[in-house]
């Protein structure tokens, strides 16, 4: 369901568009410079896989290594800038109720599910499927998928480099907000994973709200 609300004052007009993304579903949008995207974890403990591209040249896209290097931190929170593979800013996290989001856990796929959880999981829907289906609307294919962000996903990294996927840090109603620094294309997979705790073993809906540039 998508709703649009327009608020008028004597000097400005602000348009807000809200969409509820069902459990396991994909979503996408193009944002203009200064527009904001607020992601709300409606029920808590739901991972939201996320990719972002330059809307006019999708060869310019989110780069995990450049983002990590630029901020000197594996985890994202308020003030983190999502950098492109050209080391230019795509979006900035302007508000965050959770405080830590994953950059290294990647997107689940049929192949990774089979490797980690057994051949009986092959038929299960995965984030890569969502990214491919949604990205195809914009001419994107498998070669265009890169290491993604996992909003709300809890992937602690130990000093020896060991990492795992554990219970999330989020709870119902917590939000994060990103500001577009240029025209960007955002792809989202509302993660369908049921074999590890990233979604509390029960995927749920999330909400996407696009706000005006102010």
From TrEMBL:
This is Urea amidolyase associated protein UAAP2. It comes from the Bacteria. Residues 20-185 form the DUF1989 domain. Signal peptide: none annotated. InterPro entries: DUF1989 (IPR018959), UAAP2 (IPR017791). Transmembrane segments: none annotated. It comes from Streptomyces cellulosae. PANTHER family: RE64534P (PTHR31527:SF0). It holds the Pfam family DUF1989.
